[in-house]
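Re: that chain you flagged

S.,

Sorry for the slow reply, it's been a week of failed gels. I finally had a moment to sit down with the sequence you sent. For the record, here it is as I used it:
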Amino acid sequence: MFALRSGQTRRSVPTVNQKTEKMSENNNKIFSKVQVFQFLITFFITAFGILTAYYTTIAGIRLDLARKAESQFVNELDKRLSNLELLLNQNFMSKKEFFEMKEQINQRLLKIEIKLEGQK
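Prediction finished late last night. Pasting the structure tokens below so you have them in one place:
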């Protein structure tokens, strides 16, 4: 057919059987290395995104609960302080009343001392 020049060798043309053998070898591999690598990168990025969303959601819930707990705590303290103020106003006496009561107790104690000394 064609004449070969000097130094050239004849290349063999792959036959149909050789082509089908190569295709069957490629078909035995489900994924190539590049496809597996791309899949792994995609998988890890997706997993990282899911973890980030999860922790962001948990942090938001914790923050909301902390705010609610803080407001309940502040409201409870406010109620306790109000009750304490009411008790102080209702059940305790002023300084003037205290000194008057002190004088009355001192007078009674003096009367008791006088009576006890008189009995000796």
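What I noticed first: Residues 66 and 98 are 45 Å apart (CA to CA).

Talk soon,
D.
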